[in-house]
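Lab meeting, item 3. Inverse folding demo.
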C-alpha cells in the first residue's frame, strides 16, 4: 500500500513539476507578454475565422471592455487557465468519445458515466485535484479538466452516433479503412454536435475557474472571492462582467460556426 502511494506521489510530483515549469508557466507568461491591442486583434481574428463577421465585432467590443476594466492581467490569467484546461480536456475527451462510440454497450456506459459526473456539485472536483497536486495552478487546471472533459466526451459520442448508417456503410463499401471513415465521414458530420460539447466545456471551465479560486489562484476568481467578503459591489460587478464577456466571445464564435456547418451539411 505504501509503495503504491509513494509511486502515485512520485508520478503526481513529476507531473506537477513538468506541467508547471515546462507547459503552464511559459504559456501564461507568453500570453501576458502579448501587448493588449495585439491580443485583442488575435481574439478578433480567431472569432472571425471561426464564426464570421458578427462574432468578430462582438469579440472586439467585449475584449476592449475587458482591457479598459483595469483587470486585464487577471483576465488573461483566467483565460490561460481556461484554454489550458480545455485543450487538455480535448486530448482526453475526444479520443475517449471516439473509442466509446464504436460499440453500443460502451456508448451507453460512457454516457451514463458522463451523466453521473454532471450531477456532482462542481467543488467536488477540487478534492482529488488538491489531494494529487496540492494548492497550485496544476490543481486548478486539473479540476477544470475533469469538469470540462465530460461534455466533450458526451457530445463526441452523441455526434458520432447520429451519423447516418447508410453513409458509414457507403464508406465501408468503397473500401475505406476505419481511420479514413472516421476522418472523412464520421467526424465531419459529428462536428456540429461536438461543437455543443466544446461550448459547454468552455462555459464549464469559466465557471470552474471561479470555484477553483477557493484553493488560491491569481485570476479573476480570486479577486471575486475577496470582494464577495467585502462590500465592493462595483468591483465585483466588473470582475463578473469580465468573466461573462470572455465566455460570451467564445460562445458566439462557436455557435456561429456550428450553424454555418449545419447549413453546409444540409442538417438544418
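The presenter then showed the designed sequence:
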Amino acid at each position: 500500500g505504501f509503495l503504491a502511494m509513494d509511486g502515485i506521489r512520485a508520478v503526481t510530483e513529476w507531473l506537477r513539476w513538468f506541467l508547471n515549469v515546462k507547459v503552464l508557466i511559459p504559456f501564461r507568461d507568453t500570453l501576458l507578454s502579448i501587448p493588449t491591442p495585439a491580443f485583442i486583434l488575435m481574439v478578433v481574428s480567431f472569432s472571425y475565422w471561426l464564426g464570421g463577421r458578427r462574432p468578430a465585432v462582438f469579440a472586439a467590443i467585449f475584449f476592449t471592455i475587458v482591457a479598459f476594466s483595469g483587470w486585464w492581467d487577471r483576465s488573461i490569467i483566467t483565460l490561460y487557465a481556461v484554454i489550458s484546461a480545455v485543450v487538455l480536456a480535448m486530448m482526453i475527451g475526444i479520443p475517449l468519445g471516439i473509442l466509446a462510440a464504436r460499440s453500443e454497450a460502451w456508448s451507453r456506459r460512457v454516457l451514463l458515466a458522463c451523466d453521473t459526473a454532471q450531477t456532482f456539485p462542481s467543488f467536488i472536483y477540487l478534492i482529488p485535484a488538491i489531494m494529487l497536486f496540492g494548492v497550485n495552478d496544476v490543481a486548478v487546471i486539473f479540476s477544470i479538466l475533469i469538469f470540462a472533459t465530460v461534455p466533450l466526451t458526451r457530445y463526441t459520442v452523441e455526434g458520432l452516433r447520429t451519423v447516418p448508417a447508410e453513409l458509414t456503410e457507403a464508406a465501408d463499401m468503397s473500401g475505406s479503412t476505419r481511420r479514413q471513415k472516421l476522418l472523412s465521414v464520421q467526424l465531419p458530420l459529428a462536428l456540429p454536435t461536438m461543437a455543443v460539447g466544446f461550448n459547454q466545456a468552455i462555459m464549464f471551465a469559466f465557471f470552474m475557474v471561479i470555484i477553483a479560486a477557493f484553493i488560491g489562484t491569481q485570476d479573476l476568481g480570486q479577486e471575486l472571492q475577496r470582494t464577495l467578503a467585502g462590500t465592493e459591489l462595483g468591483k465585483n460587478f466588473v470582475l463578473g462582467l469580465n468573466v461573462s464577456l470572455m465566455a460570451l466571445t467564445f460562445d458566439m464564435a462557436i455557435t456561429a460556426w456550428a450553424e454555418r456547418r449545419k447549413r453546409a451539411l444540409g442538417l438544418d
